[in-house]
Specification:
single chain; alpha+beta; 4-stranded antiparallel β-sheet; 7 helices; 4 strands; globular
């Protein structure tokens, strides 16, 4: 993952709990980097170590950490740093989700070494759809849930997100049913 992801985790922690808490988390993670360069790729293991250290230090289940980080990523990081890109995704929650399969094509123009997930949409109705999430990275479905919840907050839309299929149970990819 790119350094911007790790910087966003740092920002989430320092904003909500202070610089001292970040120092503790960084030390607990065993990561030797003192800072992250936004535009540089880092090993995914670093991000997972940071999330695990946050989980341990804050006494939160890792799934809750990933959800909180996903929400933060949308509400703070992307809105502040990539506002124009986010606005190009759609004017409503549904429109943004429908455009999601093309969204990472635009992101790859900014981060050419990105290995993005793939999204597909199925069973679209007036008030729901199914979002198919394909990724080489395992264990991030709750981060995706957080991203979706963050988008719902951003677009002021009440949503219900249900994970109906997961690689954790042997399926080929994750499927979320999203209702609003």
């Amino acid at each position: 993952m790119y350094g911007i992801v790790n910087k966003a985790i740092q920002d989430l922690v320092t904003t909500n709990f202070g610089e001292d808490k970040w120092d503790i988390i960084l030390r607990k993670s065993g990561i030797e980097e003192d800072f992250f360069i936004s535009s540089e790729p880092y090993d995914d293991a670093i991000t997972f170590k940071l999330a695990k250290a946050v989980s341990d230090e804050m006494n939160m289940p890792i799934n809750e950490v990933l959800i909180a980080f996903g929400e933060w990523w949308v509400i703070k990081t992307t809105k502040e740093k990539y506002g124009g890109l986010m606005e190009s995704g759609g004017a409503t929650f549904k429109e943004f989700i429908l455009n999601l399969p093309l969204f990472h094509n635009r992101v790859m123009l900014i981060y050419p070494k990105l290995t993005p997930p793939e999204f597909k949409i199925s069973e679209i109705s007036e008030n729901s759809l199914k979002l198919h999430y394909f990724s080489k990275r395992k264990g991030l479905q709750e981060f995706v849930r957080g991203l979706l919840q963050g988008l719902a907050i951003l677009f002021q839309t009440q949503v219900e997100i249900t994970l109906i299929q997961t690689r954790d149970l042997g399926d080929s990819h994750e499927i979320f049913k999203i209702s609003w």
